[in-house]
Amino acid sequence: MNNNELNALISLLDDPDESIFRQVNEKILAEGVNTIVDLENAWENSKSILQQQRIENLIQKIQFQQTQSKLKSWIESGGKNLLEGALIISKYQFPDLNENKINKYIEQLVQDVWIELTPHLTALEQVKIFNHILFEVHGFSGNNSDFHNPNNSFINIVMESKKGNPLSISLLYMLVARQLNVPVYGVNLPQHFVLAFVSEDNNEVLFYINAFSRGVIFNRAEITTYLNHLKLAPNDNYFYPCSHVEIIKRMVNNLIFSFDKFGAKQKVKDMKQLMQLFNI
């Protein structure tokens, strides 16, 4: 579809005839993300409230389609790049986010930790440096005062506010660790996402890290006690690292809960649709 054809369709978006609107709506949706700039220009020049509302709805639907498509491809490719998965979710809420800014900030965190790391440090000593840089120098912390805010799940907002939930703070910790080849991985503990420091010699977990609580270190016995408190039977998934796909799946599930708390019904519906992609 060329620009003239697209603009002709956009001009019909305020047609009171519902059957005409549905046809126009479907044709524009089928064109996808390439229509967004024209739709935004039309919205700015429109004097019709109805047309503006319909344009806004169209843009949101097109952007959601793009989120679905990208997440599906990411999952099917094995979810190798954790940051990419997190950015796909963030772009659902913030489609114009600056990826370059995020990458540069992560590079800065990596550089700051790297400067402090020296050869032959123990695992505990390495974690102490990570904790110092992330939580003391850069000021990241768990958002206890507004725990259920959806923004706690979006990595761009977490980097700006320096606050997040257990998953997002842990995710940031992992992103820095992986670039420095430090074996820190996510553990899908019920109701509280944590990290595991894994021995490179035998692939066993040396200890666990609670990133939400500024990097507090704990052991397997404490996880068992925690599970007993929740009246849950021990399960390997609660003690060993999970995949990147499982991490982003949990992020989407967190957003379902958060958006529901805030009464954002359409966003809850969208997240539930994204959740279905993990079950394919």
Task: Describe the protein's architecture and organization.
This protein is α+β, with helices and mostly antiparallel strands and 280 residues long. The chain has two domains: 3-76, no CATH class; 82-277, C8orf32 fold, CATH 3.10.620. The protein has helices at residues 3-10, 18-31, 36-45, 49-76, 82-93, 99-116, 123-137, 155-161, 166-179, 220-229, 244-261, 265-277, and strands at 141-142, 163-164, 184-187, 194-198, 205-210, 216-218. Helix 6 (99-116) crosses helix 7 (123-137). The longest helix has 28 residues, at 49-76. It is elongated and about 70 Å long. The two termini are 32 Å apart. The mean pLDDT is 94.
- The helix-and-strand class reads alpha+beta
The major beta sheet can be summarized as: 4 strands, antiparallel
Helix share, percent: 55-70%
Query: Strand order of the main beta sheet, please?
Result: 3-4-5-6
Percent in strands = 5-15%
The low-confidence parts are none
Question: What is the 3D shape?
Answer: elongated
Question: Brief overview, please?
Answer:
This protein is of the alpha+beta class and 280 residues long. It has helices at residues 3-10, 18-31, 36-45, 49-76, 82-93, 99-116, 123-137, 155-161, 166-179, 220-229, 244-261, 265-277, and strands at residues 141-142, 163-164, 184-187, 194-198, 205-210, 216-218.
SSE topology:
Blueprint: H1 3-10, H2 18-31, H3 36-45, H4 49-76, H5 82-93, H6 99-116, H7 123-137, E1 141-142, H8 155-161, E2 163-164, H9 166-179, E3 184-187, E4 194-198, E5 205-210, E6 216-218, H10 220-229, H11 244-261, H12 265-277
Parallel strand pairs: 1-2
Antiparallel strand pairs: 3-4, 4-5, 5-6
Helix pairs in contact: 3-4, 4-5, 4-12, 5-11, 6-7, 6-9, 11-12
